[in-house]
Amino acid sequence: MEQTQERQPAERQPYDVIVIGAGAAGMMAAGTAAHGGKRVLLLEKMEKSGRKVRISGKGRCNLTNARPPEEFFEHLRANADFFTQAFAEFNNRATIRFF
Predict the structure, then answer these.
(1) For the whole model, what pTM was predicted?
(2) Which residues touch 43 (CB under 8 Å, ≥6 apart)?
(3) Which DSSP helix (H) or strand (E) runs through 29?
(4) According to the model, what pLDDT value does residue 42 have?
C-alpha cells in the first residue's frame, strides 16, 4: 500500500486591509494603507484596474489642471462654490505634489 503524506497548508499571512475595487478610490485607499505600513490586498473583478483613470485626459491620465484657480473658475458652469472651498483646502498645485 502506498503511503500518502498529508500536506500542511501553507501559512497564511493575514492582511491588515482588503480593498474591493481597483478604481481610483480603491487604488488610493490601498496605496495609502500600504504607505502606512499595512499589508494590503487589492481585489478587482475587471481584467485591468483603474480603467476610468487611464482614459481620463484622453488617455494621458490628466490628474489636474496646472493653470491658476481663477482661470479654472472662469470655465465652471455649476458648483463654483464647492470648487472654491475645495481648492482653498487642497489646490491644484497641492494635488500635483501629492501625486
Answers:
(1) 0.56
(2) 18, 19, 20, 21, 22
(3) helix 24-35
(4) 96
